[in-house]
Specification:
Layout lengths: L1 E2 L8 E4 L19 H10 L4 E3 L8 H4 L8 E6 L4 H10 L4 E7 L6 H16 L3 E7 L3 H7 L6 E5 L12 H7 L3 E5 L17 H16 L4 H11 L5 E4 L4 H9 L2 E2 L4 H4 L6 H4 L5
Parallel strand pairs: 2-3, 2-9, 3-4, 4-5, 5-6, 6-7, 7-8, 8-9
Antiparallel strand pairs: 1-10
């Protein structure tokens, strides 16, 4: 049964990497003239969360106007830029919903706990509400035996279902950790029917995906949205957009609840396809 988009809005966190900076595989940057219109559209559709990073300083002029307007802001702290990020946070008197530790699975124990204690203090002083981990590899994280986060942010999309196929998927879900999926469009490549931007290694996989969409008369946007609606353990998604039209298309597209086996045919562990760091 197809469903309207209205019930989906509370899953959406808007990514802001390309607000003021070129970002992603296609170096997209959102026109500054659209910023206010995008934020107004979010509010009118009850989308109240943004993902912003200290790595995106050019987007701050847009984002700062909304810190005090009932918008939840999530961000990340990195051990490599910690002092600069903390100074920025302190000087701008920002309060966050979630602060993530970036890539804790590759940090040594002393670096991790140094970061964790700082963020835990921010939580105690009510500067932030939740502590999160932003990771690439759940297996590496589990080997560390670090404290359970309030939020876990991890790449999950139709091609990259590695986390969903591990025992940790249900483990974190049952422990009431909020699961946030990022890289939901593979930086926009999921919308590229095999073309010059798709490598020979990726071509077979993308061809299979687009053949399925054509045979079933489904748009890529609707099918991607249906994927996240169908996986009950995914609480939130970070939605990266190219412009206001792209945002409206996603919000307004219908979705359908599928049996998860439908998506299995598109799952791959090939990092040349699913890991942007390998492109």
């Amino acid at each position: 049964m197809n469903k309207s988009s209205n019930n989906f809005s509370n899953k959406i966190i808007l990514g802001t990497a390309n607000f003021g900076t070129k970002y992603g595989h296609f170096n997209n940057q959102i026109d500054i003239k659209q910023h206010d219109r995008i934020i107004k559209y979010l509010k009118s559709n009850k989308i109240t969360s943004l993902d912003w990073s200290f790595d995106y300083p050019n987007s701050f002029t847009t984002i700062q106007k909304y810190f005090l307007r009932k918008i939840n802001i999530d961000s990340k702290l990195s051990i490599n830029s910690l002092n600069k990020d903390l100074n920025f946070l302190n000087s701008n008197k920002i309060k966050f919903n979630t602060i993530y530790i970036r890539s804790p699975e590759i940090l040594d124990s002393s670096s991790f706990y140094y970061l964790f204690e700082i963020i835990n203090k921010l939580k105690e002083f009510k500067i932030i509400k939740r502590i999160g981990y932003s990771i690439y590899d759940i297996n590496l994280l589990e080997k560390k035996n670090y404290p359970k986060p309030d939020v876990l942010q991890i790449p999950i999309n139709i091609f990259d279902q590695r986390f969903l196929k591990t025992k940790y998927n249900n483990k974190y879900y049952k422990k009431n950790t909020t699961i946030v999926a990022r890289s939901i469009f593979l930086q926009g490549k999921l919308f590229r029917s095999p073309d010059k931007y798709i490598s020979k290694i990726e071509n077979t996989h993308y061809t299979k995906f687009y053949n399925f969409l054509r045979l079933n008369n489904i748009s890529a946007m609707s099918f991607i949205k249906s994927f996240y609606a169908s996986v009950h353990t995914i609480d939130k998604i970070i939605l990266g957009i190219s412009d206001l039209k792209n945002l409206k298309d996603f919000v307004n597209s219908n979705y359908k609840i599928y049996n998860l086996k439908t998506f299995n045919a598109f799952s791959t562990n090939n990092k040349q396809i699913i890991d942007p760091r390998k492109w």
